[in-house]
Amino acid sequence: MGTPPAPPYATIFYAIHENEMLKKWSERVPFYKRFIDDVFGIWLTHDDPAQDKLLWDEFCADMDKWHGLRWKCERPSRA
């Protein structure tokens, strides 16, 4: 049946990683909110598109560096 408090445990577990990661990326990610496994954030682009892609790829790699969890990172929209 599962453990009823499993979602809050998972949220706390990943929040430990998020707090450290977001300190590193605060210049590029001024707004970040997560609900269970859905994330909404604002990515401030770099003036150089090539540099921006490198930074985005590094950010996505950092998201995936916690305990084997994998996130689907979609390219930021410039709209």
Overview of this protein structure:
With 79 residues, this protein is an alpha+beta fold. The chain has two helices and two strands, in the order H-E-E-H. The chain has helices at residues 6-24, 49-63; strands at 31-35, 38-42. It has a two-stranded antiparallel sheet with strand order 1-2. Strand 1 (31-35) and strand 2 (38-42) form a beta hairpin. The protein is elongated, with a radius of gyration of 14 Å.
Compute the number of strand runs.
Answer: 2
H/E topology pattern: HEEH
Strand content: 5-15%
Radius of gyration (CA) equals 14 Å
Distance between the termini: 43 Å
Spatially, the strands of the biggest sheet line up as 1-2
Structural class: alpha+beta
Report helical residue fraction.
40-55%
Unreliable residue runs? none
Largest sheet: 2 strands, antiparallel
Shape: elongated
User: Would you tell me the overall average pLDDT?
Assistant: 85
Number of DSSP helical runs: 2
Write the layout of secondary structure elements.
Blueprint (H helix, E strand, L loop, with lengths): L5 H19 L6 E5 L2 E5 L6 H15 L16
Antiparallel strand pairs: 1-2
Brief synopsis:
The chain has 79 residues and is an alpha+beta fold. The protein has helices at 6-24, 49-63; strands spanning 31-35, 38-42.
Could you name the key traits of this structure?
79 residues; two-stranded antiparallel ribbon; 2 strands; elongated; single chain; 2 helices; alpha+beta
